[in-house]
Queue: 3 jobs
Job 1
Amino acid sequence: MGATTPADQAAKSKTLFTNVHVFDGVHKKRIENAYVLVEGNLIKQISAQKITADGAMVIDGGGRTMTPGFIAAHEHLIGQMPFGDIFTQDTRYYAYVATQTVNTYLMKGYTTVRDVAGNTYSLKKAIDRGYVVGPRIYPSGPMISQTAGHADHRHDSEESQLIDGPWDPMVRYGDMAIVDGVPEMLKAVRENLRRGASQIKIAVGGGTGSYADPLEVVEFTPEEIRAAVQATADFGTYVLAHVYNNDGIRRAIDNGVKSIEHANLVDEETLRCMKEKNVWLSPQIIVFTFIPHGYTEDQANKHRQAYAGIDNMFKICKKIGFTKIVFGSDIITDPETLEHINDEFKHRAKWFTPAEILRQATANGAELLAMSGPKNPYPGKLGVIEEGAYADLLLINGNPLEDISVLTKPEENLVLIMKDGKIYKNTLYERTQNNK
């Protein structure tokens, strides 16, 4: 017995998994008693027949379930700290905390994360270069909002921007951006793309954590949204929008937005419109099951309002056959809750089958991420177990296709975590195969 470090794995070009039951990210039925060969960072072969690979490290899965690494599509890697720290600490403190955050995600089985608001460019670079252990990151850069919108966290004691008053630390540090008008929107989008954003996030409605905007308000004019979409499309990628209400969703999708984040207050007509236009839905549940630390009573009431809409939203999805749904948590400012991020799997079981949930967390997420086109930082296949795909793999005690709750205990039930062909957790026996 013994763990395998990424450095150890880097020296071994082949890993052969035997006796595993494979959920490939797409199909409801597992490939039983399979062999999976990894060469370098790619899946080389999958077979129900015996595979031999001279010199390969062999890991007997012991009849466990193998799945693709999970994809979390709406996360905040910067800011997993109390609100007080967000507004008083410097960027280096932000970064040190983020290194722990990304390690938490990887150890919970998330090999890829779409970060939807934050200055994560250097964090991504440090992970890709091996200085920090964490998942692949698809960065959006700072979320772009209007004045009095979801990114505007100024208090009444702060001077107005009409007389050049100061922005709050999240804007100054590059985790949020506030713009008004088409020229400012174009500049913000292009600046994010310059830094390495793989997609762009704008706020088109109110939020629970912001002060000035009820959930019902609509933000950004059609012209501003179209400018964001056009500038982003010119780089071959897409815009996602934070919004809860129908009017905001309609304005977003009518002007080219391809992914709606939250949508808790959506109605059937609007969801049907999203389905017709092939727009993705990126919902979350766990973040609404508690009141985030530091919320005022007004913010808490908005949070409860958002939670109350989830049941109706998912019932409509099931009724109309809306399946372009991805997985995510939206947890922010709460590292303790982040430790229980996998409870999101259990929460979704009220509306979806285990296979549907696992597909949301794997192949669906990968399909959405691939829409970043030439801005895709990892242009190979993610979210599936098939030949030629990235070797992002999990070995799980039990069968999550029958009991999704096994995923809520990753410390004991995720026995192996592989990202990009490197093993970051392994509690199983391994040996070297030699056919000579």
Job 2
Amino acid sequence: MAVFGKRPKHEDVRERPVDPDELRRSVDEGMLIARSAIVIAVANRIILSALQQHESFDARVVAEAAREELRRFAAEQREDAERMREIRAVAQNARGRSRHQHDYKRGDDLKLRTREATYTELAERLEASSEDPSFVDAIVIGARQRAWDDIGSTVVGRLGWAAGPADDYEVGLEDRLQELAADIDALRPGHPPASD
């Protein structure tokens, strides 16, 4: 309540701590998104390796690719955290109303600190995951399955006729089987060639 026309002093959001539950939730969601993106990136590497370099699947090579992607994603998160620090520094002196969604002001400090903390912790978890054999193995397995599914669906799509027999497959099947048996018989050594 204002006394004698004075406005009450509002709490400065710059002094409020980042909510640990919100931070944990954001980092967990970030890990799920990053893991999915990394599986896709590694699956693409598997496909390109198989199709362009004609290389067979090698779990060790793919595991190293997964670790590289994890470290690359961690580096991106560190860059995002640094960008948030820079935005916060500018926002500290910005006054007035925001003109658009990226026009941050002093009152956005808690939101920006939360994002910075999320990016920082996410980078740490991704980096740690690159050294976790079970996490890397799960990415390798997921990427291999995704690559197989992608290639398999492409092949079946291009060879649509191979996906199933034609509707009239049963018509004349017995005759075709007898012709096939006769052709196989004709290929046996010592069998006289058929006359046309």
Job 3
Amino acid sequence: MQDQDFPGSDDWAIETIGVRAGTARTGFGEHAEAMFLTSSYVFGSAAEAADRFSGRVEGNVYSRFTNPTVAMFEQRLAALEGAEAALATASGMSAILTCCMGVLKAGDHLVASTGLFGSTNQLFSNILGRFGISTTYVSPSDPAAWQAALRPETRLFYVETPSNPMMELADIAALAAVSKAAGVLLVVDNCFCTPALQQPLALGADVVIHSATKYIDGQGRVLGGAIVGSKAFIKDQMLPFLRTAGPTLSPFNAWVLLKGLETLSIRMERQSANALAVARWLEAQPQVARVIYPGLESHPQFALAQRQQRLGGAVLSFELKGATPEEQRANAWRVIDSTRLVSITANLGDTRTTITHPATTTHGRVSPEVRAAAGITEGLIRFAVGLEHPDDLCRDLARGLAG
């Protein structure tokens, strides 16, 4: 395969990188990326096979850890994040697991932000905990708390920004200063913003995690994940775990995700604009206690969002009024059940708007104490805005709010 003539340069805009970077062509000269549905590769000689297996010579060996289509996806995503390298995985959660298993060992300690995605919280607290890895949870918006949580055995900081579903932001540059002074790896989950809206590495982060299932695909078709960082980190710490344990992204899914990256910037711009319109409308509704969206001036970290993100993103949360938790849940469920246009599902990042009740879905397996600490109440609704017209989305929500 020959690399397409796309010279690496800081002059290319992110929209151009999303369409052109990482493309490699075979001798057939195909314009679109080729899909390589093969498990293994043929070598010209026993010596060539030995060199590939040993790593002395780069090249494809076995599609559990080397595949041309997957490699194109990795290269394009790395270019979008301004990174040296990326490693694709089967899902976002497998990317987080791979990162942890490649860095941590029994006796190590990690510091993570409160309000993490429910499965990430379960992974850290329950699964890693069984292997002697401890986790301390601190506020993502308080760098001093991260400093105070440090121990001699701390190896990793893990933060989602914005957080799911409370849309709390972490000051990435401030956390990077703390982590670098302590010699700790800073890992940022960039799922909600994607590189189209936020580039954590440029702000000092060491590693970026993606659930490519969400906005990178953008149409709810396939699962995928990725780890982005330096070439040495990916090759020496991440690849050995993926090669052995096999949380591998399929070539077909990689091909779908490559096509998703081509439209990522334009989708994120439109969906962010739609989300802002819906958020402003919700703020004016008397049944709504508060709207949580980084693009609103009412967000307590609006100034940070303006510095750190290009736009507010496509996800917002809003909390309904109610005298008791039971009344709040009833009001939230009524709004959700009254919708006719949006999809009741816990997934997000789709071109189709989705709605969910975090306390009983994405965070339903998290303890009530953890939910309370994160601010996830019974009246909270997460609304992931798609490409429908925002006026139609507001009319759909108005039906339940009026009840």
